[in-house]
Structure formats: structure tokens, C-alpha cells
């Protein structure tokens, strides 16, 4: 009997250990799990959660969080400002967010930390040189980690705002330029070192914590006469020394977790920083607004080969769906994990869009000088509603962005944006063309921003900056009507519909135009069937005379090809 019990115990123990989750580690230029399986991180960054940047809030003034907070305090006072921030952080990230990310196909989250949620600034310490520990940052991290564990997703801890701030790009780290920066203060460096050791001590046994990203985007020159953001530095000795010090502090309490390092010049300048100094280290780089070709990442591929170290695209985004798809496809083809920025903000080119409530718009108008100052109660209500709007159920979900990141890098197929079933009559909003990349679901003359590579002005792909993140120019009028505009010759839109019964149908388009220059040709199932001449009409929206189209039973595609532009398109109507 004892032998049987022992055997059952061994079987149970083996079963438990066989299903346990081990630490990720760097091994032979790959990130692997405890069984040695290659792990490709597909992640999202939580910008705006612990650390707000002004552009995410659409503010017209300098973008540091502390400046936004000062403006809020001037309107509602310190006590109500604290209430707003408590609500913001409670509602901005919840379990439902993480559940959704898992469902959509992500396997990791990068959490940007603000040091002041974990410890006091050096100039506010009651005892000089000591560290007062705050519980809020750890509590928020613990909650997020619990939701990641429930979904078997990895969490990467990223020091986004270091004590004093790590660069001249002030918004990134909420830096106050009137105070000593991280690189100008030994006290700030000591506090950062102590903080990382405290974090490592707390999470050393957490296997779903994937890595510690020690300093986000350092951008500070250490060499006289060079670009202030460190992109031209060739030594970077001070940065390497601090990263080595931080690594040592972590390793004193935690031998298990991956250490992630970032170069100078917003993470990409590694001159003088290599070779690596730890066996479990990953080299991160950031990528924005440049071409998605092999040349754009070659230096990091070379580092990976030369130093046998994994590389990871730790931050990217803020572009169009075409750019997202191409960049992610490039990463995955070269076995490089990636993390997009951000999950949500007040803007359309991310998975979740926080909606601007009317009260908050009044605050923006006041701050920009185009509106009256609101009363305290009115301003507080607007801010609390903004916090409420950060909840995922109150956000606009941009499925086109998610599709561009997860499905499109693996597929050249267009799929319906919405289900279009035709029995007797079907109305399709023009902006609801198929999901897919440029050349597959649509074509537009400008589909991404490459200004870093071109050296030209930033390119705006969707001129209306609403509804979808493709190159198609989608606008919303004052009454909320959504339409496609700025149509130019050779651009096109494709729609997939499911037809109940084959036969002849009538197709009409709802358009507006101030000239007689518009012309559209219609292709059904890759065959040209008819065309529409768009006539001038100054009375607003009107339906074109119907054209006959022949549709098959089942799946059909309708392609609207712009032969001559100069008009707007709101919807399609198909009827018997």
C-alpha cells in the first residue's frame, strides 16, 4: 500500500513538473523556454497606463505627465486630481484587456514603469540618500501579472521613466529639465539601482515575468559637440557602466530573469556598449517611420550573429496598417520578437481608441486658448468620464489594426470587414471595404509614413484620421457621417458579399461632388461590368442612377476602381 501511494505521488509530481512554467532565457541567439523551444514574442506596450505622454491625451502644451497633472490641478485641485489618477490607473488596465489580447493572438505585454509609483524622487526623500518605497506601483504590477498568468502571457517590466529622466526627449520619461537628469545625479542612479534590485527581489520567482528592460530609450550625449540625443556618440561609456551596475544589482537577488538592454539614441546606438556582460541578456532595438527592408535591421542582425545574443524589437508602431504588417512580417521572417506601441490612446492607429468625451474636448479647447475656462465640477466630471472611457468596453476596438498585426503578416487574402449578406437589398458603408493590405483589399497612393528614410515631411496616410488605419482617406462630418474622400485615379476599394440567389442586381453609389470630373469603373468577380460618371451636385449626398450587375450565388467580390477623382463616396446599395 505504501509503495502504491509512493508511486501515485511520483506520478502526480511528474505530472505537475511536466506542466510547470519555467523561465524564459537567452540561448544561442534565441529566446527559449525551459524545454529549449524557440519563443517568438508578439507583444503590446501599455503606454499611457502608468505613464502618460501628452500626445496620447491630445494636449496642446508640453507633453510631460507632470505638466499635464499641473494643468489638471489648476482646474480641480490636488485632492480631485488624486481621485482622477486613481480612477485612471484602476480602469485603464483590467483583466478583460489581457483576456482580449490573448484572444487576439498576442503572447506578451511590455509594462512601462514610472519610478515615482515605486519610490519618492530624490529631492522628496525625508532622509537624504534613503529610499522610501511606495506600494502603488507594485500593486498595479501584481494585478497585471496575475491576469497575465491566468492567460499564460509573458510580462516584460520596462523602466520607462527613470529617476531624473534618461534623455532630452522629455515626454518619454516625464523629465523635469529644471532638476538633475539621471546622468547628472549619482543619487538618481543609486535610486534606480536600488529600485531594480527591489523589483527583482519581488519578482525573482515569477516565471511569467519574462524579462527586465533596464532603461527605456536613453537619449543623452556623453560627448561634447554631438547630437544631444546620443545618436552620434561613439563611446557610450557612462550608459554601459550604469547598465552593468544595474545588471549586477539584479543578479545579486535574481539569477533567472532575462536582462534587456537598450542603446543610446532612443535605443539603437550600441557603439562602445558591446560585447554583452551577462549570459542571459537580450539586445533591444526600436523602429519607427523607416522602410521595412532588411537594410533597416541589418546592424542588429549583425550584432546577433557577432555576439550570439538574441535581439528583440522592443518598441514600434505609430504608423499605418501597411507599415505594421510589413514590419512584423520582416521581424518574424528573421525570428525577431516584437512589441507594439501602444495598446490604447486618444487616437485611431492602435488596437484600442479612448474616446474623447464632450467635456474633455472643452478642456482641450480651453487649454488651446479657443474656449472658456470650465468650472471645477464640470472639469472634474469631464476627467472622470475620460478615465471611465479608458475601460476596454468603452473603447473603440480597431479590428483592422489587430488584423494587420496578427493575420496579415501571414496571409495575402482579403476577408470581409463586416458580414455582407444580400437577399433583396444590401447597404454597405463605403469605409467598410475588406480587411487586407494595400493591393489586396484596397489601393491608395499613400499608405504609410516613411519620413525617417525619405528625409521628407511626415506622410499622413488616412487624411481623415478616423475609423480605420489604412491608406484610404476616411472622414467624419459634423453629424458623424463616415465617408471616403480624397479619391484619386488608380485607387480602388474591394467588397466581399454573400449572395443568397444568383441573378441580375442593381448597384447604386451614394456620392457628393462639386465637379463633373469623377468616374468609377465597377468590377464584379474580376470582370469589368459597368461604370459611373459622377456629376456635379451642390446639394450634398445623392444616389447615382443604378447600373446592372450580375452576381453569383455565394461569395462575390465588387471592386470600385477610381478612374477620375474629385468626389466623395459614402455607401453602396445593391438591390433586385
TrEMBL record:
GO biological process: cellulose catabolic process
Residue ranges annotated for the CBM6 domain, each copy included: 454-575
Domain of life: Bacteria
Key words, A-Z: Carbohydrate metabolism, Cellulose degradation, Glycosidase, Hydrolase, Polysaccharide degradation, Signal
Gene3D superfamilies the UniProt entry points to: Galactose-binding domain-like, Glycosidases
Residues annotated as signal peptide: 1-22
InterPro entries with a match to the protein in the record: CBM6 (IPR005084), Galactose-bd-like_sf (IPR008979), GH (IPR017853), Glyco_hydro_5 (IPR001547), Glycosyl_hydrolase_5 (IPR050386)
One term of GO molecular function: beta-glucosidase activity
CDD domains listed in its UniProt record: CBM6_cellulase-like (cd04080)
One GO CC term on file: cell surface
Similarity comment text for this entry: Belongs to the glycosyl hydrolase 5 (cellulase A) family.
Entry protein name: Carbohydrate binding protein with CBM6 domain
Amino acid at each position: 500500500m505504501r509503495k502504491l501511494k509512493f508511486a501515485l505521488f511520483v506520478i502526480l509530481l511528474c505530472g505537475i513538473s511536466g506542466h510547470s512554467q519555467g523561465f524564459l532565457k537567452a540561448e544561442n541567439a534565441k529566446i527559449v523556454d525551459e524545454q529549449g523551444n524557440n519563443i517568438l514574442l508578439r507583444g503590446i506596450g501599455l503606454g499611457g497606463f502608468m505613464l502618460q505622454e501628452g500626445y496620447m491625451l491630445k494636449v496642446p502644451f508640453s507633453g510631460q505627465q507632470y505638466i499635464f497633472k499641473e494643468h489638471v490641478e489648476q482646474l480641480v485641485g490636488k485632492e480631485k486630481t488624486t481621485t482622477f489618477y486613481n480612477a485612471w490607473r484602476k480602469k485603464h488596465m483590467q483583466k478583460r484587456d489581457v483576456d482580449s489580447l490573448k484572444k487576439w493572438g498576442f503572447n506578451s505585454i511590455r509594462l512601462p514603469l514610472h519610478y515615482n509609483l515605486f519610490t519618492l524622487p530624490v529631492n522628496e526623500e525625508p532622509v537624504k540618500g534613503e529610499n522610501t518605497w511606495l506600494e502603488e506601483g507594485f500593486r498595479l504590477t501584481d494585478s497585471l501579472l496575475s491576469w497575465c498568468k491566468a492567460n499564460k502571457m509573458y510580462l516584460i517590466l520596462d523602466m520607462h521613466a527613470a529617476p531624473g529622466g534618461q534623455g532630452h526627449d522629455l515626454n518619454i520619461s516625464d523629465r523635469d529639465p529644471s532638476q538633475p537628469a539621471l546622468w547628472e545625479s549619482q543619487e538618481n542612479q543609486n535610486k534606480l539601482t536600488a529600485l531594480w534590485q527591489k523589483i527583482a527581489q519581488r519578482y525573482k520567482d515569477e516565471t511569467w515575468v519574462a524579462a527586465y528592460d533596464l532603461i527605456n530609450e536613453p537619449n543623452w550625449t556623453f560627448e561634447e559637440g554631438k547630437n544631444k540625443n546620443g545618436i552620434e556618440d561613439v563611446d557610450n561609456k557612462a550608459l554601459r557602466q550604469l547598465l552593468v551596475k544595474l545588471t549586477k544589482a539584479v543578479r545579486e537577488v535574481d539569477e533567472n530573469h532575462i536582462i534587456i538592454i537598450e542603446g543610446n539614441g532612443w535605443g539603437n546606438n550600441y557603439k562602445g556598449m558591446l560585447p554583452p556582460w551577462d549570459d542571459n541578456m537580450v539586445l533591444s532595438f526600436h523602429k519607427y517611420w523607416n522602410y521595412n527592408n532588411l537594410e533597416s535591421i541589418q546592424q542588429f542582425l549583425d550584432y546577433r550573429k557577432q555576439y550570439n545574443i538574441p535581439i528583440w524589437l522592443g518598441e514600434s508602431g505609430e504608423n499605418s496598417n501597411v507599415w505594421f504588417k510589413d514590419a512584423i512580417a520582416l521581424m518574424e521572417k528573421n525570428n525577431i520578437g516584437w512589441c507594439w506601441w501602444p495598446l490604447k490612446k486618444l487616437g485611431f492607429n492602435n488596437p484600442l481608441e479612448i474616446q474623447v468625451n464632450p467635456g474633455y474636448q472643452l478642456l482641450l479647447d480651453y487649454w488651446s486658448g479657443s474656449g472658456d475656462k470650465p468650472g471645477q465640477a464640470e472639469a472634474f466630471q469631464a476627467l472622470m468620464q475620460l478615465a471611465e472611457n479608458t475601460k476596454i468596453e468603452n473603447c473603440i476596438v480597431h479590428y483592422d489594426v489587430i488584423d494587420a498585426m496578427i493575420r496579415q503578416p501571414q496571409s495575402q487574402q482579403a476577408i470581409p470587414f463586416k458580414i455582407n449578406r444580400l437577399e433583396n437589398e444590401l447597404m454597405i458603408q463605403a469605409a467598410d471595404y475588406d480587411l487586407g493590405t494595400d493591393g489586396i483589399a484596397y489601393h491608395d497612393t499613400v499608405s504609410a509614413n516613411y519620413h525617417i528614410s525619405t528625409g521628407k515631411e511626415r506622410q499622413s496616410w488616412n487624411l481623415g484620421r478616423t475609423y480605420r488605419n489604412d491608406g484610404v482617406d476616411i472622414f467624419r462630418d459634423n453629424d458623424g457621417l463616415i465617408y471616403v474622400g480624397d479619391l484619386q485615379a488608380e485607387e480602388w476599394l474591394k467588397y466581399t458579399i454573400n449572395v443568397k440567389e444568383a441573378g441580375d442586381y442593381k448597384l447604386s453609389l451614394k456620392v457628393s461632388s462639386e465637379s463633373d470630373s469623377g468616374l468609377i469603373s465597377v468590377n464584379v468577380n474580376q470582370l469589368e461590368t459597368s461604370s459611373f460618371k459622377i456629376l456635379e451636385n451642390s446639394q450634398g449626398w445623392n444616389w447615382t442612377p443604378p447600373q446592372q450587375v450580375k452576381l453569383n450565388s455565394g461569395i462575390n467580390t465588387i471592386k470600385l476602381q477610381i478612374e477620375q477623382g474629385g468626389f466623395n463616396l459614402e455607401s453602396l446599395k445593391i438591390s433586385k
